[in-house]
Amino acid sequence: MPDLIAYMISRVAIGFALGATSGIFVILLNPVAVESPSDPLEWGLVIYGFGAPFAMGYLATQLATESD
Q1: What is the chain written as a DSSP string?
Q2: Per the domain annotation, does 20 fall within a domain?
């Protein structure tokens, strides 16, 4: 796998993991903030809603600050 592709996949995965973890903590600590998801699909969509922007933000930040 080319180095750039591996770099991008790893950064997106790290960012998604950070965002998903944040989403889980928000749901567990303050469920009213995300309108109390009750169905597993709702949980998944809230977690994805936190993870996707974090993934792109982490990738963009890493690409912008990388100085090689």
Answers
A1: --HHHHHHHHHHHHHHHHHHHHHHHHHHH-GGGGT---SHHHHHHHHHHHHHHHHHHHHHHHHHH---
A2: yes
CA pair distance 40, 18, nearest whole angstrom: 20
Provide the CA 4 distance to its chain's centre, in angstroms. 20
**Encoded amino acid at 1, one letter:** M
pLDDT per position as a tens digit, 12-57: 999 999 999 999 999 999 989 888 888 899 999 999 999 999 999 9
Give the predicted TM-score (pTM) of the model.
0.86
Q: Residue 56 sits in which domain range?
A: 8-63
